[in-house]
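Changelog excerpt

This revision adds worked examples to the README so contributors can see how folded entries look when concatenated. The first example is reproduced verbatim below.
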Amino acid sequence: MHSLARRVTSLTRIVRWPLLLAAMACLGCQTGTLIDPTEANSDMSPEILRDNLKSISDSLIQRRIKGEITGEQYRELIAKAAAELVEEMDLEHVEPGEAWQYGEVLRAARNWEVAEKLLQIAVEHAKTKKSEDRRVNDTLRLAQVQASLGKVQAGIRTASEVLDAKPSDSAPILLAVLYEIVPAARGREHDAELAELLEASIQKHLGATVETSTQEGQAFMAARQHHVSGAYVQLANLYDAAGMSSAAAEAREKARLSSSDFTEFLRAELAKPVTKRL
């Protein structure tokens, strides 16, 4: 077990979601059942915390799809919800195998400092247990937290640690880099290194393998072209910001080609040797 007593204030263990419930009422949102640990006569487990947060998120996503709230309102409400759930956590003693679940709620609450410590525990535990799925996912989440703390170089180095993942474990990499790490890290004097990470992540995505008989695998295949094309657009922007105009032009051309004939683009890219630009 790992003690975070010096970093985290004492917890009430009484369910209190006034800000969340008020926000949901104003929006007219209907959530799934939220579990009260006082009714269950036990501490709130990490599974219950994550289930509650997912229920809230699902309702808010439906509101966002309908245009009833903006993306920024969604993020603010999720952060408020997660912050209130954090108050129900017993963070003084965390089992290493549960650290990633607590880390998820803390990430949503934007409690970066405590999230970093828990995700570091989670990554080390995954390595010890040789759980490649958890190693990849938790390392990427740790990288996003580090970038959000302003530790951009550390975040880039951390994310780069999963570039050795096998094709069967590589599916999460690009999505985490493109949609979480890049937004947290860009514009902080390391755009060239960030671009290299993104470019390597695109290659991992192109070579990733999934089980196409599953719903998740089918969703991955259906969305692959969209994510890759968008990633090349973002890559061009990063290279522009880094003053690397030639690399930016190449990225824009790849964005065009990948959005046109993805099957041919994929074949051509996979046939090329992997090289580092920087």
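The second example, added in the same revision:
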Amino acid sequence: MKLKSAYPIFLRVGFALVIAFLITQFHFDYIEAILYDARVRLRPTPQTSGHVALVAVDPHSVGRLGHVPNAVEHIKLLKTLKADGARAIVYLLSPNEIVGSSDELTALAKTMKATPGFYVATQEVALKGEENANKLLPPFEDIKPIPAPKTADRAIFAGDGVTRRIMISYQDQPMLHPTI
């Protein structure tokens, strides 16, 4: 008699286990990524704040200048951004790659050091104990590059190359993204 009353409970538990097993066999990350992308695309585009400016050193800007920006032009840019009240200035270009005389590069290093909210982003993330691995060469040795790795989704998600992740810290080392 007690076995007959326990039968519906065993049947429900059995069905629940079978359904749970079947659900774990499918990768729903792909579906979630596609649905997230659809939600983002279908939502109206928010108004931009106008508080972010991107200054790119690309073939178009080099063509307009007639040369790659040198140290003096970087100093002018930094002073202009500082005067305009920029809260953060992030260089994706290593200062070691900037062209200029020794005096110009030293002046640029001093300007960078004196500019509040100035960061040099690097893709490299040093292991604990190798903090000096990303150290810049003189005269920029006093400027500490901050890791800001760009992550990328693999094909198991939406397969569109858009990153949906951000590193906050690694081995107790803060990354640039949450800093700014």
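Reviewer comment on example two: The chain is about 40% helix and 10% strand. The longest strand covers residues 118-122.
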